[in-house]
Amino acid sequence: MWKIGNVEIKNQVVMAPMAGITNIAFRKLIKSFGAGLVVSEMISDKAICYRNEKTLDMLAIDEDEHPMSLQLFGGEVASMVEAAKYLEEHTNADIIDLNSGCPVNKVIKAKAGSDWLRDPERAYEIVHAIVEAVHLPLTIKMRIGFDSKHINVVEYAKLMEKAGVSAIAVHGRTRSQFYEGHADWSYIKQVKDAVSIPVIGNGDITSPLDAKRMLEETGCDAIMIGRAAMGNPWIIKRTVDYLEKGVLDEEPTFNQKIDMCLTHAKELCKLEGEVNGIRMMRGQAPWYIKGEHGAAKVKNQLTKINTYEELEAILKSFQKEIEAYNNNK
Fold it and tell me: What parts of the chain have a pLDDT lower than 50?
């Protein structure tokens, strides 16, 4: 048990915010596997200020998700403050997270995401103004620097603590790395040693053993799992069990993955309607079959699905193929 402000988090496993991924359906799935905290995909401050209907729909929170955090991104004081106040007044979020790590060009051009790392004083001004305006605990997710020549995460983290955030998540890559190369965990340790608020370590956690190693090497208070949970929500429960009980559960079976993919699709269809839900599953479903014999051909089919029935038929057919393949080994 640890805390972000006055919010108790039951374990050390946090689900990372991922654009286009961590919607309410995915978060509920991850929460059912025992995540201590889930974070929404990033939400535009300006879109909230303009009351964009699609964006406001992204603010929905299920009662089973708590504690949960809504993540904001933007680049101006006034709109970020207005958006944060809207989240506090019109949602039941427990925490507001600020995006200071997104590497995407269009986000950088809006002076948001990783661009904050290039102007720490402006970032401080925005964060401090939000802290003064809302009562919800504020967290910030950051990278170690904009590029290898400008690694400033320790100074930046100390400035964010001074601004009033209640916890910091550090992804051990620079903006220029995007998601390539290796995350440098040594900077997570440096941040942990430099601040007195909780630090969440992120980057290259693909197994429960990685999670334990990060905690031991960096001393961070919690770990954040991102892409490794796509198509594999079991990594959440396996990590919680390993950290708390020292038990390394077995990997899920192929049949379990197929069943979970269909469950995920049903939740998305319930949330978004079948047309949008299945369109979103085009990108999600392939993760559930990644690494299986013949998956490339099936992945191509999955990227063209239009109905739940199509999804189910493709996966059930693939199930039979894998069963026959295994029997003939």
Answer: none
Asked if 269 is an active-site residue, the reply is no
Report pLDDT for 328: 84
Q: Which residues contact 133 (CB under 8 A, 6 or more apart)?
A: 81, 84, 85
CA atoms of 146 and 307, how far apart (whole Å): 42
Residue 135 to residue 169: CA distance in whole angstroms: 20
HEC secondary structure over 236-254:
HHHHHHHHHHCCCCCCCCH
Strands 7-9 and 2-4: antiparallel
* pLDDT at site 44: 98
From 49, 102, 261, 269, active-site residue: 102
Instruction: Tell me if 159 sits within 8 A of 131, measured CB to CB.
Output: no
Contact 236/33 with Cβ under 8 angstroms? yes
Task: Take residue 146 and report the two structure tokens written for it.
Answer: 């904009």
What's the whole-model pTM score?
0.95
Question: Tell me, what amino acid is at 286?
Answer: P
The pLDDT value given to residue 66: 97
Decide: 89 and 82 in contact? Cβ < 8 Å. no
Distance of CA 123 to the CA centre of its chain: 21
Query: Residue 5's closest CA among 141, 136, 140, 195?
Result: 136
Could you identify the residue written with the tokens 């559960």? 249
Q: Which of 52, 25, 64 shows the shortest CA–CA distance to 41? A: 25
CB 230 within 8 A of CB 264: no
pLDDT in tens, 91-125: 999 999 999 999 999 999 999 999 999 999 999 99
Three-class secondary structure of residue 48 per DSSP? helix
